[in-house]
């Protein structure tokens, strides 16, 4: 396969995959679900969303009061706790769709990905060797012509 066809196949695969992902992401909804009291559940305990910020506030105040590394570590852990609280209250759901729509999305995503993977993981050594052999053969032919010309010129003199 020549370079132009590979480029067309690669770009076509990316376009198919992007189209399938676009359609899929248009069908997916992301929202936040807060329970009765608003917060997230950590094991059996229901943690209100406002209480997640309290360790962060304590860590920031502690950093201004102390020069130790411990308040920085505590603040970093409280930021991680805030991110975890956000992720735990996030819910993802999809619209209902027909089987045709779902299969079309899957074919676009995985077919495009397969086209891209085929180009990326293709063994190019055989093609390069054939190109090198053609180039070497052309150089040998050029050298043989030059030798023949030199022999003719020496014979004339």
Low-confidence stretches: none
| Helix run count | 5
How many domains comprise the coordinates? 3
Spatial shape? elongated
Alpha-beta classification: mainly alpha
How do the strands line up in the largest sheet?
Answer: 1-4
The biggest sheet amounts to: 2 strands, antiparallel
Distance between the termini: 50 Å
Order of helices and strands: HEEEHHEHH
Helix content: over 70%
State mean pLDDT (0 to 100 scale).
85
Task: Give your account of this protein's structure.
With 157 residues, this protein is mainly alpha-helical. It folds into three domains: 1-30 and 97-122; 34-88; 124-157. It contains five helices and four strands, in the order H-E-E-E-H-H-E-H-H. The chain has helices at 3-27, 54-65, 70-88, 99-120, 125-156, and strands at residues 28-32, 39-42, 45-48, 90-94. It has a two-stranded antiparallel sheet with strand order 1-4. A two-stranded antiparallel sheet has the order 2-3. Helix 1 (3-27) runs antiparallel to helix 4 (99-120) and helix 2 packs antiparallel against helix 3. The protein is elongated, with a radius of gyration of 33 Å.
Give keywords.
single chain, 157 residues, mainly alpha, 3 domains, two-stranded antiparallel ribbon, 4 strands, 11% strand, elongated
Summarize the structure.
This protein is mainly alpha-helical.
């Amino acid at each position: 396969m020549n370079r132009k066809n590979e480029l067309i196949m690669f770009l076509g695969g990316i376009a198919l995959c992007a189209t399938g992902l676009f359609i899929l992401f248009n069908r997916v909804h992301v929202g936040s679900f807060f329970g009765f009291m608003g917060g997230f559940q950590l094991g059996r305990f229901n943690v209100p969303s406002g209480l997640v910020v309290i360790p962060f506030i304590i860590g920031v105040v502690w950093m201004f009061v102390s020069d130790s590394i411990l308040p920085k570590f505590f603040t970093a852990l409280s930021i991680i706790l805030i991110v975890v609280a956000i992720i735990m209250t996030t819910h993802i759901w999809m619209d209902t769709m027909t089987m045709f729509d779902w299969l079309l999305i899957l074919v676009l995503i995985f077919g495009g990905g397969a086209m891209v993977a085929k180009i990326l993981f293709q063994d190019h050594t055989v093609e390069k060797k054939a190109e090198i052999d053609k180039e070497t053969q052309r150089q040998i032919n050029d050298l043989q012509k030059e030798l023949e010309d030199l022999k003719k010129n020496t014979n004339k003199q």
